[in-house]
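Now read the record:
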Amino acid sequence: MKIYWKKLLFCIAVPLAVGGLSAFLTRDSMETFKELNQPSLSPPPWLFPVVWTILYILMGVASYIILVSKKENRSALTVYAIQLAFNFIWPLIFFNMRNYLFAFIWLVALWALIAATIYFFRKISKPAAYLLLPYIIWVTFAGYLNYSIYILN
């Protein structure tokens, strides 16, 4: 399979840019996060940007596989774009608005959109769908953290 480097780099850059802009808009978030009552399984703050960077790269590679597929990919890429928008907005709700219940509800919707993206990607490419599994697992864990923070704070 030929690699279209410009398309690949673009596909990786898009989720990294979305995550980077969201992080910029919530740049004091880890200070806020440290002040909250934390659930018992809360990871150290340094882990979040590391995990998200890896997940954004995996998303980008998965979207590249779908983009260059010879199969009809419009529905899959549309759902992917919508979930990416939901991903962008969640930290703004959680950190900037500090509305933990609404953030949790938003995260549930994000989880459903990720599941839909995996479903649509799988119809086109199983490897692309598999690349999104760590993402949905992490968002499931984020749901536990979000809901626990809502209850504890």
Notes: The chain has seven helices and no strands. Residues 100-124 form the longest helix (25 residues). The chain has one domain: 5-26+44-152.
